[in-house]
Amino acid sequence: MKFKLFTLACILISSSFAKAQTSYQWKTGNSGGFTYKYVTNDPTKSRFYTLKNGLTVILSQNNKEPSITYKMAIRAGSNTDPRTNTGLAHYLEHLLFKGTDKFGTLDYAKEKPLLDKVQALYETYNKTTDQAKRKEIYKEIDKTSGEASNYSIANEYDKMMKSIGSNVTNAHTSVEETVYEEDLPSNAIDKFLSVQAERFRAPVFRIFHTELEAVYEEKNIGMDSDPRKMYEKMLFSLFPTHNYGQQTTIGTIEHLKNPSLVEIRKYYDKYYVPNNMALIMSGDINYDELIIKIDKNFAYMVPKPFALYNPAAEKPLTQIQKVDIYGPSAESLYVAYRGFAENTHQSLLLDLIGSILANGKAGLMDININKQQKMLRASAGYNQMKDYGIFILSGSPKTGQSLEEAQKLLLDQVDLLKKGEFDESLIKATVANLKLAELQGFDNNDVRADATMTAFIQNRGTEWDKTLASTDAMAKVTKKEIVDFANKFFINNYVAVLKHKGEDKNIVKVEKPTITAVKTNVNEVSPFTKGVITAPVKPIAPKFLDYTKDLSFGKAGIADVISVQNTENGIFRMSYRFDMGSYNNKLLPYASQYLTFLSTDKYSAEEISKAFYNIACSYNVNVGTDVTTVSISGLQENFDKAIALVEDVLANCKPNEKALEDLKGRLLKARENAKLNKSSILSGLMSYAQYGTDNPFNFGLTNEEIKNMKSADLISILHNLTNYKHTITYFGPKTLEAFSTDITKVHALPKEFTALPAIKKFAYTKTDSTKVFFADYDMVQAEIRWVRNGGLYDPTNSAKISLFNNYFGGGMGSVVFQTIRESKALAYSTFAVYSSPNSKDKENSVVAYVGTQADKMNDAVAGMNELLTTLPESDKSFDLSKSNSLNGIETSRITKDGIIYTYLADKKLGFDHDSRIDEYANLKPLTFADVKSFHQSNLSGKSYSYCIVASEKKINMADLAKFGPVTKLNLEQIFGY
């Protein structure tokens, strides 16, 4: 009776997703003087407009919160880079933040001749091969750029976004798209649109050579990333003709060294035209009012004929290609197949097959590899691009397993698919789970905007109806069709990318040019920017939580219940929340992992996973340091089934000695891999600096203790978990009373709770002298973190901390970013924050970071130390930071189960009310003097611990000793095993 539960669960699949399929048809509407197209039954209610100049506008109304997600999408990326100037689209993305002849400049008439000279110098530099002459030309570029910076105002765009209240300022470039993104309050639409229209009117490519250096650093980051190298090599092999494989987004080192501002301008003029762009806004909008404003602001744009990248079709792949990659991180592999164009039936089948192979619960890989722990990790999925897709099998081998053996295990699952050895109900289950994901996802503005943006990039949005109908189309697919297709598609035509642990001898870093810091003129404001900042807006009043009204408190037996009713749909999310974690019991996180592989008296572990997938519900046990949460979610109509399954698993799970031995092996391998991860090493260094040898990072079982773990001990923890005090949280359609009644029937509770185990406390070290903690790692960059313990949490400082971080080092417009990256070109990524803890009994900390080329390390350290010592003063930047901090509170809306989590977080900090009430009130009277005083009291003149991960081959260890006494830590000291 192996499939008894699976079959039962299939019968119980949500009736909500078993109804007749929805009809998605294009229609035309007229409103507010504009014609638009829309698709019937579209859950995003998106309207597709085409303005007279060809600009596509896609609007989606969602008035639940006073915010709007904005994306400006251009159908041009690295595919359309000239072969002689790869990386150009990405350069251009960076330069679109530099302003125009109206903003970003003090005097464009005086600035322009110098910028023209810089452009001409780069053209000469580009054509010069003599290295001595090139250095002389670059000196002149550096000198002229410095002169031009007397007139430039760095990051005026960010100043305006701060004044508007944008929470997200970002952009990205990919193979066939460049997208600019913001998240703004809905009361600032007029100001916002005026800035965006100006931004694309006549961009000026100023402050170029320091921005180019940031791109160099981005390239170096990529060369330090083994996964990125794997992905690029995979594309190169899959696409020997198409630019997907032949041109990377960052570009080649040779092209990075020889940029052409002339070519960048040509690219902008060719592709940044309205008939190749889409303005997308989703959120608190009025369709008719907004389209009028967009049309008015962007009517100046003039359409131009252009041709997008139109490659010759790739020839079929006829053999297996093996690619070996080397690097310091752990072993892993890809097995990749070239797929089909977007919205083809073949691509739909591959998307569906991805879920049949791996869906996190009941896929062939989930059941046959992950559940049986035959590898450290295995997965599969389909990545869709415009012209082709990529079907990827991926995984990591366990101890003693070769990459080739792991590859065979992945391909064995494909063979099962080709033989039809899977249950046809997986198709229905996949559709049900996708429908649920859509129901949840389309409630989010960014998800809506991103979906329609992708539709525009891939087909100008003309097939949005097919996108919406894709899950219904999947429901029509039969098992026979999948098997027939799989046997034609999955043949010996794949690329196997094997990532080995070893030295990559092919890495060539981008050499550091000599750059003199440019002026940022941070205290200056152009007339255009001043007009935007001072333009009045209708204020948005903050909405704070009243925990006595917004939450319902009750009891289920002896357990406390906290609930928020979901009045919008039939989704529920609930949890059992225990005030204990790994600091209370070192075995607890291992017990939760063990649970995944256990059966009960009624059902096998595989049957349990399949059952959850088939009723479109999920559960997991998450063990934190001081909180453990058993979470369950899905459709309310399947609530009883989901809870009954969880209760059965916790109460009746049985030991499985083979599973435990396999788990031990995987745990030990994962630990070994962690020692090869530079981010993990840096985190360990920080913990060592803050707490000493006995610290949270290395707290846990030793390898020997893992080897000696006993099933009986882990099972005892699981069986007795609900005997410990816990709070039940619920967000769902039922009232508190109805839910409490229902949960009492299925959730077994003791007469009284067992006392919680004592929690492990860690002693903070006093940062009373400068120290250096160093770990050696084979990498191009050097990563440096400054750490200082700052004393116990004080709730009265929350407003000062928020404002200080906004002004000093928490974003692109901050002092740290402006100085380290924009002016001195020392890093791609940098920040510095005063960090508050999540509990009132923990300490604050100062954390600063620079990731930089190893030969820039000394300059980067000096630059950050200067800022930590002396706070630069800019009244205008301070005013913008303050208004941005206030605006962030005014426009935030905490809803749904977010109310529960906010309440619990506030309670942990000692608040019995919404802590934002105090922060907002305390923000209003703050002045720059308060922020400066905070900086002087908590950062300036203080000692810091430097945590540095770098290659000893690329830095001078004597330089580290100049910072302070150096402690070189080995991996055992850092990780504790």
Give an overview of the whole structure.
The protein is an alpha+beta fold and 977 residues long. The chain folds into 4 domains: 50-310 and 510-534, Metalloenzyme, LuxS/M16 peptidase-like (Cytochrome Bc1 Complex, Chain A, domain 1), CATH 3.30.830; 321-443 and 460-501, Cytochrome Bc1 Complex, Chain A, domain 1 (2-Layer Sandwich), CATH 3.30.830.10; 547-746, Metalloenzyme, LuxS/M16 peptidase-like (Cytochrome Bc1 Complex, Chain A, domain 1); 771-975, Cytochrome Bc1 Complex, Chain A, domain 1, CATH 3.30.830.10. The strands form 5 sheets. It has a 6-stranded mixed sheet, with helices on both faces. A 6-stranded mixed sheet has the order 14-15-19-16-18-17. Strand 1 (26-31) and strand 2 (34-39) form a beta hairpin. Helix 1 runs parallel beside helix 23 (605-614) and helix 5 runs antiparallel to helix 6 (189-199). The two termini are 44 Å apart. Residues 1-15 have low confidence and may be disordered.
Please summarize what this structure is.
The chain is an alpha+beta fold and 977 residues long.
How far is the N terminus from the C terminus? 44 Å
Report the sheet-strand fraction: 15-25%
Give the quaternary arrangement of the chains: single chain
The residue fraction in helices comes out at 40-55%
Determine the CATH superfamily of the largest domain.
Metalloenzyme, LuxS/M16 peptidase-like
- Which class of the largest domain in CATH terms? Alpha Beta
CA-based shape: globular
- Rg result: 29 Å
Largest sheet: 6 strands, mixed
Count of β-strands: 25
Question: SS-based structural class?
Answer: alpha+beta
Any idea what the CATH architecture of the largest domain is?
2-Layer Sandwich
Please work out how many helical segments DSSP would assign.
38
Strands of the widest sheet, in order across it, are 3-4-8-5-7-6
User: How many structural units, i.e. domains?
Assistant: 4
Output the CATH topology of the largest domain. Cytochrome Bc1 Complex, Chain A, domain 1
User: Would you tell me the overall average pLDDT?
Assistant: 94
**Poorly predicted sequence stretches spanning 5 or more consecutive residues:** 1-15
